[in-house]
Amino acid sequence: MQVLSTIQEMRLACRAVRQSGQSLGLVPTMGALHAGHIALVRAARAQCDVVAASIFVNPTQFGPNEDFAKYPRPFEQDCALLEGEGVALVFAPQPGEMYPAGASTFVEVGGVGDRLDGASRPGHFRGVATIVAKLFHIVGPDKAFFGQKDAAQVAVLRSMVRDLNFDLELVVCPTLREPDGLALSSRNRYLSASDRARALVLSRALDVIAATYRAGEKDVARLLETGRSVMATEPEVRIDYLQIVDADTLLPLTEAKPGALVAIAAYVGGTRLIDNTILR
Ligand code: AMP
Predict the structure, then answer these.
(1) In angstroms, what is the span from residue 142 Cα to ligand 1's centroid?
(2) Cα separation of 213 and 200, whole Å?
(3) How many angstroms does the Cα of residue 177 sit away from the middle of ligand 1?
């Protein structure tokens, strides 16, 4: 496995893969890898000849009072995991490599980029779209792998790929969960044991909404009420948003339908967690 930290080295290595006629898969990450990331790598391995992963805690997608500085960076451990999964190329640049002094061009995905997390975290999706566009240009993958866990991010990146004509396929992989339902997240390691227990309320609320929908309730206001009443059983968990939206546009629905996205963000202690489910 090659670990590369400059754009030039990564470009050359990826170009060599493409010129050899092999297909190239990209798995972008911020590191602090868990089984959810590994599932993306395995999907990439199954669908592509060569897999590249990036590890980059992207400063432009964090707000001024967010956890950029304290975001976990267990770099050696992450590299060992990726090597064990058969990843060929790891791109791990420093912030100055990706954003040299004077860098002033950003990718703004209008509309969808301002909804859900884009509304709660102004500028977040501008940072995400910019870094992912840069990675796409540097790597030139045939396929790029993302998690359904970040459903709003998927909607934003789909729009970006369509609008800017990126010649690649986005592959979205299902959310990996702990046996008790908690969605795997690098931020789960911030949780104390008691917060870890409280955090289960997010997936419980989503489950209740999905079950109520399956039982025949279509009215979004009533569905959201069932979710909010579950959330109320953990008064120390503060809802940031709980919405039922169109999965592509992220616009709120009044009537639920198959394929609708139920998305939640909530603060558990000081940690902001997100989760979602698709209505079927
Ligand atoms: P991150 O390192 O948090 O930026 O995540 C990198 C990629 O892993 C993103 O595409 C995420 O959606 C995906 N991911 C994060 N958590 C999970 C999970 N529990 N299951 C599947 N994919 C995930």
Answers:
(1) 19
(2) 20
(3) 11
Separation of CA 14 and ligand 1 centre (Å): 23
**How many Cβ atoms sit within 10 Å of the Cβ of residue 233?**
11
Please say whether the beta carbons of 36 and 147 come within 8 A: yes
- The gap from C-alpha 151 to its chain's centroid, in whole angstroms, comes to 7
CA distance 125 to 108: 8
**Residues in CB range of 32: below 8 A, 6 or more apart:** 71, 72, 73, 74, 78, 186, 189
Tally of CB atoms within 10 A around 69: 8
Domains of the chain by range and CATH?
A: 2-173 (3.40.50.620), 186-275 (3.30.1300.10)
Nearest atom, ligand 1, residue 183 CA: 19
Give the ligand 1 atom nearest the CA of 176: 20
Which pLDDT score, from 0 to 100, does residue 223 have? 99
Does 37 participate in catalysis according to the annotation? Answer: yes
Question: How much of the chain exceeds pLDDT 70, in percent?
Answer: 100
pLDDT in tens, 14-57: 999 999 999 999 999 999 999 999 999 999 999 999 999 999 99
